[in-house]
Amino acid sequence: MAQTNVQPGTAWGDTEGRRRDILASAEGLLEESGYPALTIRAIAAGAGVSAGTVYQYFDGKEEVFVALTARRLEQVRATLEEVDRLLGIAGVLREILPQITELWRKLGRSAPQWEAKVLASGRRNKGVVTSATLYRNTLRTLEQTLRETAEAAGQTLVEDPAVAHWVWDALIGVADDLLLGGSRQGRVPRRRLVRFATEAIERSIVT
Q1: What is the pLDDT of residues 89-136, one digit of tens each?
Q2: Residues 49 and 29 sit within 8 Å (Cβ to Cβ)
Q3: Which contiguous run of DSSP H or E holds residue 27?
Q4: Contact 127, 62 (CB under 8 A)
Q5: Is there a contact between 141 and 81 (Cβ–Cβ < 8 Å)?
Q6: What DSSP character marks residue 59?
Q7: What are the E-state strand segments in the chain?
Q8: Pick from 92, 56, 85: which is nearest to 171 by CA?
Q9: Helix (H, G, I), strand (E, B) or coil at 206
Q10: CA nearest to 115, candidates 135, 100, 88, 142
């Protein structure tokens, strides 16, 4: 199975390229077979390196998972920081939904297994702390973007600390439906679902 994910060779000494190869291999394993398939040996085989090389970059597979999550969350944050506030809240949500859908497709369903593993090592495990920090930073950026976008449209964002969490969870729900094809089975076109959901989210968080 690992052979199907083998990455092209990276030039000797290209440390960033090697790290990207390792992460690409790990992400492919997660997408294909889930967290149980994520072993250092399988990651190494997919990246075309030795297990020892993987350990030069990461302490273990839990740290690899954190790095993958960090990369995906940073992409969402970058989009939120740069997106045109004049698109309106629903428009902003449609801009980040593809990235959230990719995050959920590649990593989301493995998150509970990752959490169970690292929490077994203690609640102050570095992986837990790092992951929680990344998530909080993303939600802070989301809330700030929603507030600025609402103001640009003459709206007021609801004052509640749950807003960003709820919006994120709602988008994950939409992403899950898009991946599983639930709306398609109900003969609801993908584009119509996305538009309805993002507009409904907007209506629920502004006054």
Answers
A1: 999 999 999 999 999 988 877 776 666 655 555 545 565 566 778 888
A2: no
A3: helix 15-33
A4: yes
A5: yes
A6: S
A7: none
A8: 92
A9: strand
A10: 135
